[in-house]
Amino acid sequence: MKKKKQTGAPISPPTSVEILGRRELLISGCTGILHLTEEKIGVRAKKTSVWICGGGLVVSWAGSGRLMIRGRIDSLEYKGDE
Amino acid sequence: MRGGFFRPLYRVSVPQASARGLISAMVSRDVPFSDIERCGDEIIFHIRRRDRAAVFDMAKRLNVPAKCELSGFFALMKKYRRRAGLPIGALIAAAMVLISSKFVWDIRYPEGTPAEVEAALAQRGFTLGAYLPGLDLTGICQSVTSESEDISWLSINMHGTVAHIEYRMRLEGEREDISEPSNLVASCDGQIVRIEAVGGKSEVKIGQTVKAGDVLLSGVIDSEALGYRLVRSRGEVFAAVSKTFTACCPLDITEKMPTGRTKTVKNIKFFSNFSENEKNIDTTFKKYDTIEKTERLTVFGVRLPVYVRRTTLIEYEDENVTLSESDAEARATEDALLQIEKTCGKSEVTSTSKKVEISDGKVYVSITVEYVTNIATEQKIKTEQK
Q: Chain A: residue nearest B38 by CA?
């Protein structure tokens, strides 16, 4: 049987946030960026949005629905329903 | 996605004001990117080659003016593709690495390796800078072990271009020939303290006084069952010995006085150490002492086959000096003690006495030492050959 090639957007993983100290943060299940400055980054997830406040924030890399943010993390806030 | 110098990544720069929309679109379309950095009014990030079209499509739809260029190794290759010197240089470097890997760059011996091991290998062409394909390492090892009387086993282990030598020296006594009959005789006068006989028959007793030349252990054994037999006497006979060591020091002596003029000569040699006959130094100094120091060059802990020899010549003049009696005595005592150390070595010294005499402008120091030492020396028994 010929295997059908999957098309369209990949299935996004469930949202999860991993923080390593105050310098590194990994968000899984991202679907977009809401805000992008050195002081604040807003990330859109499936049913919620994650807001990171701090200083010198930068998106280090992204791929497979994951986003790595580096910089000084002061606060993390969820907005919207999960 | 992780960046790397050798990965064909594209560097995308977009104005900071419109960067969020494009990055958000990339996240939502799951287009990987990495190494985001702010550079003035622009945001720069890296994408894979295959995502370039998709990113440009997104940028066009969002009306974001994005600039894209190749980065890393491939960008450098593209930039310098017209410079022929670079690939030629790279080729020459690669060829040199290839050629140099065919030579011995370093030979490492275990600590305390005698010079004869190095000499035996050098004699068979295994030296620094030797051409490896032209050497039969197994043959060299076999040749060394079969021809050398002192080396019983040798192995050359090549780790890249560095040779690690392992060897075993033949143990003393391994080839002891006991076929030739002999006696052990006293080498000097003394009183027997201890007898450790391995072969032969003891002819002396503990406490007995012997003179130089007296037989201590006899190689002639008379037994009732077998008759006379000739054997090789082996063992040690310790005796209390008294010996006087005399040294003298004149009160008027000539001493070396440095003039303060020195000269340093540096020599560099590749692949082998300096030989003794390579010391042709041109100098105007009439009398001088030579201090020589040979070092091997190392770069980041890696020993190179390059030797640097620093030869320092220190000019001096002879000057007549008159010593005080105590200074002369101290010098003479030092000489006598050196003689004692050389003769007695590790022997057990039981007593010492010192005598000082001054005559004819010289100070004589005599030290009499009583010590226990092995006085046995071997004397072959001459037999008629059949």
A: A58
